[in-house]
From TrEMBL:
It holds the Pfam family Transp_cyt_pur. The keyword DNA damage does not apply. The keyword Lipid metabolism does not apply. This is Cytosine permease. It comes from Agromyces indicus. Residues 472-502 are annotated as: Disordered. Residues 480-502 have a biased composition (Low complexity).
């Protein structure tokens, strides 16, 4: 059975063809699909090796088994927020980076939406390419295939090409292939689970620590786990083709569960594996608990799962780069960012002393930026009652209702800056300890402080900053001017408002 284009799909979004749409609004005539398709998209991207590694990191930190398992579940509850962000896609018919113009302004979004998005995207592309390359080299060695001097760079190049080609094709191809990737990877992890559970040391214990030190480790582990769901501020990218009147509840649930289920199950598997093997380099030590025939299967899973995760990352990074002002197509910019990420992955892999240390430190610090960003986005959906006019969001001129003050919306920018600064000061990583964290005995509160402060401050400023300090100008206000109509409200035959610039 071959993936095919679903009935009703527009010519711009067909399986096996390069998607022609970029960050612009998707008109109602081209909307298609069902929310259930989102589950497989997010499942295929998150049935991945990274969660297995993160679970092992919790054990390496010195956390007790049961606490590491609890942290794996609690930290991944942030997937609920990712699901909530996805509901803005059908409402606006636009990707997340375009919708973020509403919360940061046309110019402000180039820094706090598009700029950070490109950095975040390339960061995760590097991680995925690095994991896949290491596994591919190990797989070749397992079959006795030696590499000539510099051969590892050729492997890196092949992995890079495979990592980004599906993202180039775009939305329809991603949706069509997602269930197949999900099924193949899930089978491997189910078999792996049997071996891991059989070898687990259920009596595993760690040396007791002083209470303050122990809770510092708990919060550090939470920050590492939370960094993954908090990095996905792109839910609208994959939901934007859905009809505007689609069920918001289904969009949110299918998105959230598609990420939460594999993240928790695979992360927990990594935790349990950490009681039986050294998780510093699991692709080598896994051979201690699995039969010889499964080792190449495990390595192949790492390669495939890293590539499938990169499919979504590369797709959204292309949107972010376009929003920066790149005057090339989404497909072309995906190739460009992919080349940059692949080259950077080579530097990380072959020219830095410890990839795992660099990974842990990066994940620990990344949450200080991711948390406030997705929190502000989530609060904006609530404040606007999910009313986004995709056509107005496409307008980047000073006449745009989202130009605000010189192209910047102070509420979003101030909330983002303050929340990120406080989150950084509250972080505790292997490379840096913030003064707030130090004063609290080393507790890392960045994964909590950043989102809570960012979202709360944004809500306060949104309600007291021009234009929304005037209740009549708020989206959905009865006295607001119905100058434009979102497709969501058009589908429901209800009038809505266009926002009025200051």
């Amino acid at each position: 059975m071959t993936p095919t284009t679903p009935p009703g799909a527009p010519a711009a979004d067909r399986v096996g063809h390069v998607e022609t749409h970029g960050i612009e609004h998707i008109p109602a005539s081209e909307r298609h699909g069902r929310p259930s398709g989102l589950f497989w998209v997010w499942m295929s991207a998150n049935v991945g090796y990274l969660y297995f590694v993160v679970g092992g990191v919790l054990v390496l930190l010195g956390l007790p088994l049961w606490q590491a398992l609890v942290i794996t579940v609690v930290g991944n509850l942030w997937w609920a927020l990712v699901g909530w962000l996805a509901v803005s896609g059908p409402a606006a018919g636009a990707p997340s980076v375009t919708i973020m113009r509403a919360m940061f302004g046309i110019r402000g979004n180039k820094v706090f939406g598009a700029g950070l998005g490109v950095a975040i995207g390339i960061f995760y592309e590097i991680i995925n390419v690095a994991f896949a390359t290491l596994a591919a080299i190990a797989l070749l060695a397992h079959f006795g295939i030696g590499l000539p001097p510099g051969g590892e760079w050729a492997v890196l190049a092949v992995v890079g090409i495979l990592s980004f080609i599906i993202g180039v094709y775009g939305h329809a191809t991603i949706l069509a292939l997602a269930p197949w990737f999900s099924a193949a990877l899930a089978v491997v992890f189910v078999v792996l689970a049997g071996f891991v559970l059989g070898a687990a040391d259920w009596s595993y214990e760690v040396a007791p620590l002083p209470v303050a030190d122990h809770w510092a480790l708990v919060m550090l582990g939470f920050a590492i786990v939370a960094s993954s769901p908090l990095s996905w501020g792109t839910g609208a990218d994959y939901a934007r083709y859905l009809p505007a009147d689609v069920s918001k509840r289904k969009v949110a649930w299918y998105t959230a569960l598609g990420g939460f289920i594999p993240a928790v199950l695979i992360g927990a598997l990594g935790v349990v594996a950490g009681t039986a093997i050294d998780m510093t380099d699991p692709q080598l030590t896994i051979g201690e608990i699995v039969p010889a025939w499964f080792t190449p299967v495990f390595l192949g899973m790492i390669v495939l799962s890293s590539i499938t995760n990169n499919v979504l990352v590369a797709y959204s990074t292309g949107f972010y780069a376009q929003a920066l002002g790149a005057r090339i197509s989404r497909a072309a910019v995906t190739v460009v960012t992919g080349v940059v990420a692949t080259a950077a992955a080579g530097w990380v892999l072959f020219l830095t002393p410890s990839f795992l240390d660099a990974l842990s430190a990066s994940l620990e610090l990344s949450v200080t930026v991711f948390g406030p960003l997705v929190s502000i986005y989530a609060v904006d959906i609530v404040l606007r009652r999910n009313r986004y006019d995709g056509r107005s969001l496409d307008d980047t001129t000073p006449a745009s209702p989202f130009w605000y003050r010189g192209g910047v919306f102070p509420a979003g920018v101030v909330a983002m800056v303050v929340a990120v600064v406080v989150a950084v000061l509250s972080a505790n990583t292997t490379l840096y300890v913030g003064p707030i964290s130090g004063a609290l005995g080393g507790a890392d509160l960045s994964a909590i402080v950043g989102p809570v402060l960012g979202g709360g401050l944004y809500a306060l400023l949104w309600l007291t900053t021009t234009p929304y300090r005037d209740p009549a100008r708020r989206p959905g206000a009865a006295s607001a001017h119905p100058a434009a109509e979102t497709e969501t409200d058009a589908a429901a035959s209800a009038p809505t408002t266009q926002e009025v610039p200051a």
